[in-house]
Structure formats: structure tokens, C-alpha cells
């Protein structure tokens, strides 16, 4: 069983449509793929409709959170997408991404970069708009050579010259909301230092005590030392350990299934979830 628990589509800042994503996941030899777009479940229906035989879809989202001024991502799996309190919080975060992107564009204009909201909007389509879309516009304008080169102090990194904060949920509130909606939570790439300050282990311990289910350990942004340390922490705190690609199509270099999750951990996640169930593929459209 090959299981990839963290992927993005055009419903947020990935470049595969949800239908393309599930077809590519099957072609990559995956048995299970999770669709975890930033702050939205909007891609799920299309992914289900296109789901190939032999591939199982785990529905989810990657929730934008902040603790003590540090941004962090919380993967939420198999929650009830209609549960009103979690739905309202997702909408709040997702909707705030629009004025926030416009604020970053204004800052870029102030720095002499002629990027426009129309241009970024065209790139984002109806997806949850984020910095990678703005970064793609900067690549198109020849300001930076690649999307990842836009994530520097000079441009869009946390605290960078053109950075603007968005509304982000307190992770303890997010854990409570996801649980109340029948879902399971995994702290995404907790040691991804190149993205900015990381959350201290003491706070991860508090989250574990508050019901966090797991941490993502095998991820491209974690080196061998970070993985060893996180595995030890998970053991101490009784947390599940996952691995995943965090695939974004052509906006990142990582391949689908490049990192995977142990089938036993996947089984435990599905046993804990009561809000939704994994969807087996029936052939697709
Ligand atoms: P946002 O949610 O709009 O703040 O954008 C955050 C997203 O930008 C993350 O989920 C990643 O997909 C991407 N990102 C963050 N840091 C980097 C980086 N250093 N290089 C490339 N992409 C990044
Ligand atoms: Zn992303
Ligand atoms: Fe993330
Ligand atoms: Fe992600």
C-alpha cells in the first residue's frame, strides 16, 4: 500500500485540477491519496467524480493557523465538510486571503513591480488564493526565476518586504473544531525551518494534550536530523507519524508519492475519523 496524505490541487495553490490530481496519483502507483487544499474542501467533489478504480481518496484540508506569532499548518482529515463551525472558520480564513493578496500586490507595486490583481486572479482561478500564485506572477514578470525564489526576505517570505499577514486560526481552536466535526488532525511539516520560525516542542506537547493526533515527519522540508528528532517527539507524546509529498504540481519539484505514510498509521487515522470516510474509486469520469 502506497499512501500520500498531503496534496494540493487548483482548489488552492497546486497546478493539477482535482481530476488531474487523482489520475496522476493512480499513475504514480498510489493506493491512497489525500486532497488537502489550503483552507478549502472545494476540490473534493471533482476528485471523487474522477477517482480511478483502485485509488482511495481521503478528503481533507490544510488549515492555516498561528500560535504566538508563528504561522503553522494543520492537516485535517475526514471531517464533516458541512459542520457549520468549522465551515465558517475555513471561510473566514479563505476569504481573508483575497484582501491579503491585494495588500501584497500593493506592496509589490510600491517596490516598483507592476503586478496586478487581475493577473494574480487569473493565475489563482477559483482556487483559495495564496503567496504561490503571487510568486507565479513574479516569475511571469521575470522578477524571480522560480516560485521558491520569491519566498525570500526581499519578497514574500514571512516578514519579507511584500509580505502581508492573513487571518489564521489558533491551533487549539482548530483542533477542537476539527474534532467536533469528526475529523483527525496532523501538524504539517512542523520543522520546516526555511519557511520561517518553527513552533517549539513545548507547544507541540500542549497540542498533543489538547487532542492533536499526529505530526508529519517524512516531508521534503525536513532533513534527516529533524526527522529523527520528530520521531522521538512523536513517541514521547504518543502521536501518529505521517509522511507525504505536499505535492503542488509544477509549483514545487516534489513528486506524488515521494514520501508516504505507513499503512498502520493510515488505518488508525481512518478508525479515529467519524465525520467522513475514505472514498474508494469506482472508475471515474
Ligand atoms: P500562504 O498560505 O498564502 O501564506 O502561502 C503559503 C504556501 O506557500 C505554502 O503552503 C507553500 O505551498 C508555499 N511556500 C511557503 N514557503 C515556501 C518556500 N520557501 N518555497 C516555496 N514555496 C513556499
Ligand atoms: Zn500550498
Ligand atoms: Fe503547508
Ligand atoms: Fe501543503
TrEMBL record:
Molecular function (GO) terms for this protein are: 5'-3' DNA exonuclease activity; 5'-3' RNA exonuclease activity
* Record InterPro entries: PHP_dom, PHP_domain, Pol/His_phosphatase_N, Pol/histidinol_Pase-like
Stored Pfam families: PHP (PF02811)
Under SUPFAM superfamilies, the record lists: PHP domain-like (SSF89550)
Protein origin, superkingdom: Bacteria
User: Polymerase/histidinol phosphatase N-terminal domain: from which residue to which, for each copy?
Assistant: 3-67
The record's Gene3D superfamilies line, in alphabetical order, gives: 1.10.150.650, Metal-dependent hydrolases
Name of protein: Phosphatase
Species in which this protein is naturally found: Streptomyces shenzhenensis
